[in-house]
Each structure stands twice: as C-alpha cells, then as structure tokens.
Amino acid sequence: MRINKFVSVFTAIVLAAANSAVLTTVLLPKAEDTAAAAESIDHCTVRVAVVDITTGENLEGAVFELEENPTGSGVKFERWNTSDEPVKVVNGLFTWELYSINAVSLPEGYIVPENTYFSFDDDGEVKDYTIRVVPERVKRNVYFYASDWTDAVPTEDGRFFSGIRACKDQHIAVEVYDEDGRCFTHETLWGIYDMYLPDGRYRIKATPIDRNYETITEDLDIAKTAMDMYDDAVFPDKDGFIDIEIADGKMVNDIEICIRMKPEAVEYIKDGCKANISVVDLYTNKPVDGVKLRFLDDPFSSREVIAEWDTTDEPVKKIKDLSALRWYEVEVVAAPDGYFINNSTSFNFSDLGDTQNIVIKAVPNNEEPNVNVTVYDWTDLVADPSDGTYEGYKLMDPADYSLTVYDNNFNRFEVTEGDVHLPDGEYSVHVFYDGSKYHYVDNQGWKARAVRRILGKDFIVPESMTTCFEIRDGKTVGQPCLFLEKCNSKKTSCTLNLQIIDGVTGKPAEAAEYRVIRIDEEFEEQVEKTGLEEDFRGFMPAYGKMPESGAVTVDELEPFVKYIIVGSSGSKRYSGESTALVSYGKDGETKDVTIKLMPFDYKKGDVNGDSELNVADLVMLQKWLLDVPDTAVEKPGNADINEDGTVDVFDLIQLRKELIKNVL
Questions:
Q1: Between the CA of residue 150 and those of 170, 188, 266, 322, what are the distances in Å?
Q2: Would the N or C end of the chain have less CB density within 10 A of its end CB?
Q3: Residue where one domain finishes, among candidates 434, 459, 486
Q4: What is the C-alpha to C-alpha distance for residues 612 and 28, in angstroms, rounded to an integer?
Q5: Domain residue limits at 655
C-alpha cells in the first residue's frame, strides 16, 4: 500500500472542505447508535389509486408519475402503469417538500381534470389519494351559475339587488368532497362552470383563484340581506361549503356561486388601475406627433377597443378604471414617415390600484439598419471533432421565427426584418418560434460541444432562446447567433449497460439505485481531477431503482459529452456511493459499466485504533496526510477506505461521507 501525501494548495483546500461539514459536530455518537438512529427516521408515504369516476373501478393502461418540487426544479420519479400497480405506494417522502401526481398518458377517451398537489404535515404521515379520471363521452351534469356581486346593492324598494353581473373571466377552484368528508375530485373552472359527478351526495367548495376576490358565504351581511329578501336564496356555510345531490345523472338542486371583490380591495382601487401612454423618439426622448394608437382590452381574446387617439392631440394618453391581473395592449395603427415603431405593446398590472407609465420608443429609420443577429437551424447538423466535420446547418426562414431586442431599460424593439438602427449600447435578443415545431439547441448537448471542439471554446451557443450583443460605433460587435432545431430531430443512440453489484459477493447489490448525469462542460476537468460527485452540475437523463437482476440498459445517450454514473443503495450495509465516468467517441457506441458497492466494515476508517468510527479518526487522517509533526496513524491498514491501494485525499473524503451518513 502506497502513502500519497498531498502538499499542494489544492490538497489543503480539498482537505478543509472535506472536514468542514463534520467538525461542526463536537462529538459523534457511536457508529452502531447512529446507524440505528438512521434506520428509525420516519419518512412519509403516499398511496395513489386511479379509477374511472363513473364506475369507481381501477383504470388500466394509464401512466402516472410523482414529481417533487413541481413548482420549482421539478424532479420526476416513481413512474408507474396502473395495469401493473392499481395502488401505487411511494415511501421515503419528506414533510418539507411539495409533490404532485401527474398523468403521463391515459387510455384513449379519458381526461384528468387537473394534477393533484400535496405535502405532509408530520413525519411518518400516510396520505391516500384516489385520482378519478373522466370519460370524454359522459355529459357534464353539474352546472354552476357564477355571478359577481362586487357592485351589488339592494334597490330602494328592497325587492331585489341591482349591479349583479355574470362572471366572464374568473378562474374558480372547485373541491368536491363525499359524504364522509373525503376529497372526491377537484377541478379549476373558467368561463363555463360545469363538471361531471356520478349519482350521490356531495359537499362542494368553490374559491376564486384571484386573491382579491372571495366567495360570499352565509355569515356575510350581504348574504343575510339576500336571504331575507329571497326565500330560496342559499349561500355556502361560513367555511365555504354547499351541499348538492346528483340523482339519475342530474342535479337535484341548482347552484349559484356568488363572488365579490374583497371590500378592502374595492376601497384600495377606487378608480382602478391607471395607464399613462406616450410615444417618444429613441434618441431625443421628445414626444413624436402623428402616431395613431388604439388601446385594447384582453388582446388574446376579445380585443375590445377601449380608446383610440393621435399623439398630435394627446401626447400622453391617460386611461383609468383598468383591472389588475388583466392583459392590455397598445396597438400602433399608423406611424409617421421616418420612424419605426413596434406594432404592439402588451402589459398588465400586478396589483390593484397600480399605475403604469408606458413609454413607447420610436426608432428613426433614416440610417442604415445595424442589428445583425443570425438564427440557424441545426436539425440536420453533422459534427465530428475527430475529423473536423461541420455541415448540415442552414439559416432559418424568417417566416418561422421573430426577433425582439431589449435594451438595459427593457425597451423592446422588433427586428425580425432587420430594418432597425439602434444606438451604441448593450442589448439582449430573444427569438420567438412555434414551440410545437422547434426548440432551442441545448448548449451542453452533443451538437454544441462537438462544434466547440471544432471551432474553439469561444464559440457561443446560448443557454436558451436569448443571447446578448453590443452595438459599438454604430455596428453590431461580432456575429451574435441563435440556434434552433426541430422537435422531431433524430435522437442520439449511445447505450449504457450498467450493473451495480456487491463488491464482495459479486451478486446484485441490495436496494441499489443509479443516477446517470451529464456533466456540464465547465466541470468535466474538475470532476476528473477530484472524483467528487458533489463537484458538478448537469442534466440527469436517467435515474431509478435497479431491478433484482442488478442490471439496467440506458439508451439515447449522447456522444462527445461526459457522464458520471452514480451507484448507491438504500441499505445501510454499503458504504455510500460509488461512481464511474463514461464518454462516447461517436454516436451509436455501447459501453458496459460495473459499479461495486462495498459492504462497510466499521474497522475501515478506524485509524486511531479505538474500535470506534468518529471525528477523531477524521482529524488524525487529515493531519497525517498533511504531514503534521508527531502524527502517527495507529492502524494504517484501516486508512485505505476506498481500497484502491493508496491512502490519499479520496480516502479522507470517503471517511467524511461515512461519518455524515451515520449522523443523518
């Protein structure tokens, strides 16, 4: 066994990092105590059934998945087919995480009203969910008449209310509970407020999504007045629930959901949101006369014209009584000669009572266009660093995309036709395209990496559909480019045959799991030097639990990139994770990788010979590797923790992992 004592600055940094997470603990429990504690961690469990809402029977042939942190990074795992697992049980979940149950595919003729989101309140909690899918053939038999009572007031004779109007654009979340108080189904409705329910008695709770609105319940004064006025008036109870019954496929009683803007919100907005709209010269910032404009409500649907004007008469158009969380658009009907102005500017108000100053920049077009951005189609790109092949790319047809440039003040300029002259400065350009046909090229994917190897690391493939550029001395600096490819482009075909085995018996490791991570290019060299799986960022194309055979095949991996394969086990029998690095020199290659998980012998790492594994062993090994005077390892045979025949910084890192594992 060789002793490899690092004396470089790199080693000292790694040693300090390796030790820092453990030295915060003053005294560690004995190994056997911490192992027992780890086994006693009480994780949460969810049980999921998927049934036909009309029959209550298991729906076969549906594929669902569980997603962690669905509103953030969105890690998908535990995919299952309901034919194989009518009731899916997922263990090992955590109280601090948000989860969702998503439909991946359904048998033809079925729909899922919406995804189910949930979290746990207590350690060890078990939740049961029944996802009720709806056949498309069934008639939606539950109808809600939704009315807005924000402006409702009793008439002078006290016989009825005036000011009530139908809801047109409110999203209402409907929760349905059975007679036992269990959630039966839920759906968010908009515009047409209807859904399907089988025969039975239910409790329904309808809640406006808009946080500035509320459901009118029986405890509110306006509801009490209405119930005194109308004998048949029924409002939800103070908790928002109302009882309904379905018999012979029809509603026994009609339902009206009455909502209103909260009184405090009404008081706050008074005259509503306001917009002050002007058009100015990009260079002089002076008003531009002769621009004819229209102001549109709901530009993505009704496009109702609220106002029309000419900037000659109204340099600043003031519009009030607008709504928050609603889209509006300023449309240019005609522009004076000598100016380029974007055809439209859309905006909304994030809060009630807001005022927005919309300043539209008019760009003089009396100079030569100077925005030079190229968009390429890489669908058929062929690139091979081994022989320098770089062909098959082509310019995108401008009819298939549009370009918008933003300056540092977020002023927007449409430049698809390339007829705009912008002043010197820094800009970003964004490409818009049909997302059902194209997607932007992955700047960490095989195409981008192959081209960088051929043309040099300075060749820029943007991370998304946006890139930055500069205009200097009236010209675009360099050649900013954006890269797209068709969604149905040919997939890569590299293959990984992976085995995870017990390092002693050679048999499949117990409770083994795997992760295949494509390492980001900038971290490849670092990972190769340190071997630390913490030292990378990357995309995870495959992960999961190993089958009982201990072998799995991963397809559609990429050439010219580097993967780190991480093998681990849920069993405390094994000493942490083991890794392997894999890369492919050309498309279509197959690699066989075997990862060994070593059963953890608690004598390994006991370098001070006290028959315990604790922080004292970590400190002694660190001092020994740094050649601190008067430091002697009592059990040098126990120091080669990763059993590679050399005692070095990687053994220290492995020891650190074991200590953390036994504490958690």
A1: 13, 21, 8, 15
A2: C
A3: 486
A4: 10
A5: 2-39+601-663
pLDDT digits (tens, 9 = 90+) for 473-488: 989 998 899 999 999 8
Give me the phi and psi of 486, to 5 degrees please.
-70, 145
Nearest C-alpha neighbor of 598 from the set 545, 657, 648 = 657
Same domain, 479 and 393: yes
CB 631 within 8 A of CB 621: no
| In-domain check, residue 32 | yes
Mapping DSSP to helix (H, G, I), strand (E, B) and coil, where does residue 177 land?
strand
- Rounded to the nearest 5 percent, the helix, strand and coil shares of the chain are 15, 40, 45
Is residue 330's pLDDT more than 80? yes
Greatest pairwise CA separation for the chain in angstroms: 101
Rounded-to-integer distance, Cα 292 and Cα 312, Å: 9
Tokens of 215: 């459901």
User: Would you say residue 82 lies in a domain?
Assistant: yes
In terms of domains, do 421 and 521 share one? no
Least confident of 238-252, 325-339, 599-613: 599-613
**307 and 227 in one domain?**
no
The verdict on pTM exceeding 0.85 is no
pLDDT tens readout for residues 300-309? 888 899 999 9
With beta carbons less than 8 A apart as the criterion, state whether 333 and 438 touch: no
